[in-house]
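Good morning,

Both structures are done.
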Amino acid sequence: MKDLLLITPPFTQLNTPYPGTAYLKGFLNTKGISSFQMDLGMDVILAMFSKEGLEELFVFAEQNKTVRSENGGRVFALKEIYILSIDAVILFLQGKNATLARKICADNFLPKAARFEQLDDLDYAFGNMGMQDRAKHLATLYLEDLSELILECVDANFGFSRYAESLGKSANSFDELYLKLNRELTYIDRISIKLLDKQMKTIQPKMVGLSVPFPGNLYSAFRCGQFIKDNYPQVKIVMGGGFPNTELRSVADPRVFDFVDFICLDDGEKPIEILLKLIEKGQWPFDLNTKLKRTFFRSGKDVIYKNDSEEKDYKQNELGTPDYSDLNLDKYISVIEIANPMHSLCSDGRWNKLTMAHGCYWGKCTFCDISLDYIKIYEPLTAGILVDRMEQLIKETGENGFHFVDEAAPPSLMRALALEIIKRKLSITWWTNIRFEKSFSLDLCLLLATSGCIAVSGGLEVASDRLLKLIDKGVTVEQVAQVTRNFTEAGIMVHAYLMYGYPTQTIQETVDSLEMVRQLFEEGVLRSGFWHQFALTA
């Protein structure tokens, strides 16, 4: 029996755990609160993409929907080859069957449907000797062809890193999601619920925490909550994470609390600790005098928000080291969807996630949630504590790769971190998100590279000085060009986040931005860039 079962619902990413539950578990350890965490999305993927799983999936697809598309027909015609090859391919993507790469790169091993007709120039992308990466790319296309069949014949909401995302994208109305939740379970729902039920019986938690970072986790989170309420009514359910923090800050529909008991905003450590103490004392249902921390709940037909607890949030140095135990780290699969170096960094390999500093040291960009605590409360760790946590994670996970998931890593702390890593003679690989600060001199970039920094990503946003000033980004295009050159000369890959459709941006400015980025690529100072349509959170 555990105090808390922490769940990341389907789906986030395939190659490494989303860190929300690991951060919370690390904190709970410091308080002697017992917990167990599960990545339900990864569990579901591995159940589906196995020999037994594909056999059941093809039977279901055949019974429930006629294959209509040409590609669906091709996948179906090759089903025996898919069933025979799937376990070996998954083992390869888990890093356990490396010699299969040569077989995958041959022309006659993998069944090939529509994705293989859109192949990039593989020799250009991977060279003549990049056998492992080439094979990962081909194996990823193989999985994506199967996903197309699932979308067409099994579940139209399926996605490897999201599920029913469109239902969670708008926080304006709960109606569509509520209707979907009151329909029959989908094929994927049934797999999820079976795996969840097994853990509920094993762990017997007092409370379940649902971590919902993205819109694509929301539907499955509510499905989990619905099942727990129907079958384990004594267990309380709390929801938190990035999606509630941005889109559910003014939730008012009482039907939401048919599926969860509480929604907590921003840093979850103190709110969850308070809830657990109250539940252990049997103080539920809450009355309006109960003191809580950033917590929604339902009282009668009313949605109540309470943030009147006088207990302070914990400092970053009090939270403990993230704890990835309970998660089967060797089960995650590395994929390469497109021949883009930053995309590969995000989806290939397992990274320990850490944060250098809570919040953002800049905190001025006009498109950002700068009024919210998780951005505006800036609190850096010391380099010594950071490297202590890194060493602890290396011992726990056996992995020396780190992704610092900061809003924007502070240059002064990056410098101190690099010096501490070098001082302790550690062999580390790390990358992070930055602002293109003028303080990133060539000397600093060389120091970061020496410590193991291999890549940085940052917001160039609109590549226009007028719009960068409007955004209050604090950088100029000329400055970005110089900083990206410094990183590149130090051997650190640079990725730029870009947007189009920012308010008042003209077509000509959009074209000029494209041209500026083209020149940065031509000069070799940018290796990767993603364009996003501008969107504003609630």
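Second structure follows.
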Amino acid sequence: MYKYLSFLIIGSSCLAQQPQSGNTPNAVTNMTSSKPKLVVGVVVDQMRYEYLYRFQEKYGQDGFQRLIREGFNCKNNQYHYASTVTGPGHAHVYTGSVPALSGIVGNDWYDKVDGKGEYVVSDTSVTVIGEGSARAGKMSPENLKVTTITDQLRISTQFTSKVVGVAFKDRGAILPAGHTGDAYWFDIGSGNWITSSFYDDALKPWAKAFNDRNIPQEYAKIVWETLYPIESYIESEADDQPYENRISGEKKAIFPHKIKLGTLAATPWGNTLTLDFALEALENEELGKDEITDFLAISFSSPDYAGHAFGPQSKEVEDIYVRLDLEMARLLNTLDAKVGKGNYTVFLTADHGVAEIPAFLKKHDMSAGLMMGSELSKPIDEILKKELGKGEWILANTNYQLYLNRELMATKKVSVSQIQELISAKIGLIDGVYKVVNLENFNASNVPAMFANKIQNLYHPKRSGELMILLEPGWFNGYSTRGTTHGSMYPYDTHVPLVWFGNGIRKGETVEPTYISDIAPTLSQLLDIQEPNGNVGTPIKEVLK
């Protein structure tokens, strides 16, 4: 699928972050239309809900605070399924669906039809567009089995609406843009923004011109210091912690950090660069310039890279969000100037939260732990071979899910329930394991109702494992004692922000439960268009005027 358009090459980028004043540009006449001229979806990768408030004293008035003050805050917003990782998060923000329908069951999975591992946006039929690695360009939304709200917007306007997705991560740009929009992601090896032949046969002139300015190389020369004096960062623990990961090439995980192009993604300037490029798209694609609603989907990936390395109690994560607040102010001020106050709608959310580093919790006498590498898979294999005989009983172990060898099971007349019982009898007694559940034939009575619903929404017959190992809160599987991750059904991974702002949005807040699946149908009501075809959510009526 190719789309041919030509655009002006203009624009410039801010090469350094500075605290911004409260002065808002007013270059566009502020006339409110019945529908927004532009919708801007902002997904912050790995943003816990608490970050809106924990670092609030250091936020200015024009970023996160403005969204909350002038918009509508869904304070009890949760994920509605149990695999809280980047690919599914971005997919289901924009589809209102569940992994069981969308097919987006993880960042990676074992495909039962092909008998091999699959990456969420991989597509071997396409090629890189732009100056980037061949592998980085073999990406598209082919694996997404349902439509997005951005697809529905395009359909409703006979494909005259413009949709652009931008993110450092390919999956953070591709899945929000849907099957019919344009998507751009960053190739860290070349330092360029790229796309694939799914979208076009050449990089747009404005995107090529942006790459030619070598902005990432300039950011990579910056030394990362805290924006404010580090001693004022009292919302996070001491800087030098043995369980934090180090940026590549550094001996300690402490400030100041030297940046290279290869480590830019884990610093605040990954966010700055993302917004630079997104605003270049806003200008050159002329988004929001007429009465036909356009859509700009921005995902800030850097908080996830930094969060994995340093953990949610780190000085680095605090500084990432203090500086991201400046980027949010820059975004809103630019939208005021380019599109006009009252002419656009913004929503802010996240693709998942994050667990505490287990060593941090244990240091403070709280229950937590780490399953290292094959600590679980090895004893499972031994149990099955001892009880059922030799053979490759487990074909894959991904996303805490076990993919069983159905051919071997049929030959030896063994059922999924039998394997579940064998594993549960041994593995279920290990410290840190909560339960082994049968996804194919799930018994919801065995787990609390709020978690049962999340588990039920996971199982896709072609892409999910038959069994899933549920760990206890505070535990996860990893390959290092440093850093942290996400992917569970617990509140630290599922409770994320949802703030609405702008055209058609009330001022206020609610503590009533809302869900990620509610975002797409709420937008469909705002825009008077059909909700995505795999939608399971409900419009949040309190949000809309």
